[in-house]
Design brief:
Helix content: 25-40%
Number of helices: 9
CATH class: Alpha Beta
CATH superfamily: Vaccinia Virus protein VP39
Oligomer: single chain
Order of helices and strands: EHHHEHEHHEHEHEHEE
Largest sheet: 8 strands, mixed
Number of strands: 8
Radius of gyration: 18 Å
CATH topology: Rossmann fold
Number of domains: 1
Strand order of the largest sheet: 1-4-3-2-5-6-8-7
Length: 248
């Protein structure tokens, strides 16, 4: 399942939130897995705010989002994109694997935060918020491979922000291709991740190994840097910065 959200879906979301019936009417949360944070190819943990998202939110204080474009990849709650929006980004694309996460978690969070951004102007008029969201935000859901194939994301971006998206080895190539397809030549990519993901196979080391192998095979020209380390907790966490070297 994949696609953009059109205006009618956004209006439906705003209606339900505004009438305080949203969470009970639009989705049955008891269908989510009760004993697992993810079900591969079905539910990828989008209703949870993960530790690495907090790391990237903190690190984002060093970035200049003013008048920039941002892709929040695997957005879940949308906090990374919302933060960039609050810091002056001109447009944001929110992308998640799950339609239901986008409809029930991402869009409500963005909608509510627009009230803070505009100091509660026209609070009783959801059309005002809808127009602002349509001007500055895109919402896209689905598998990364299908998104690229159908070119569902409308542009290239100054920043790509992503958190906890390298846990599955099977998705490494598709994630790499999203980076390559949607980053501007002078853009920056920030990947917040745990050093190892026990039980699911991914790790920072293996992801960087793939990037190096792809570069040797001329599939990319990314350069990378570990720009943040957090050794608190059982599993260390890191942020990887990717960029494309300028051509002299």
């Amino acid at each position: 399942m994949y696609g953009p959200f059109d205006e009618n879906i956004l209006k439906s979301s705003l209606y339900h939130i505004n009438n305080l019936r949203y969470l009970t009417n639009s989705y049955k949360f008891d269908t989510l897995p009760q004993q697992s944070d993810l079900v591969p190819n079905e539910y990828e943990g989008g209703f949870k705010i993960w530790e690495c998202t907090e790391d990237l939110l903190i690190y984002s204080g060093k970035l200049d989002f003013k008048n920039k474009s941002v892709l929040d990849l695997g957005c879940g709650s949308g906090l990374l994109g919302i933060n960039a929006l609050m810091e002056g980004a001109k447009n944001i694309c929110f992308q998640d694997f799950n339609h239901d996460v986008m409809l029930n978690f991402t869009i409500p969070n963005v909608w509510i935060n627009f009230f803070n951004l505009y100091n509660n102007v026209d609070f009783a008029n959801p059309d005002f918020i809808l127009n602002e969201m349509n001007d500055r935000c895109n919402f896209v859901y689905g598998d990364w491979g299908q998104i690229i194939h159908m070119d569902l994301i409308p542009m290239k971006y100054d920043y790509i922000l992503t958190s906890e998206t390298i846990y599955n080895l099977d998705n490494f190539t598709k994630l790499h291709d999203m980076f390559k397809h949607y980053i501007k030549s002078d853009g920056k990519i920030y990947i917040a991740a745990k050093s190892h993901y026990f039980g699911v196979g991914g790790s920072v080391h293996l992801f960087l190994k793939m990037l190096t192998e792809f570069k040797l095979n001329k599939k990319n020209n990314f350069i990378y840097n570990i720009c943040y380390n957090n050794d608190e907790g059982i599993v260390p966490r890191q942020i990887i910065e990717l960029s494309i070297p300028s051509i002299e």
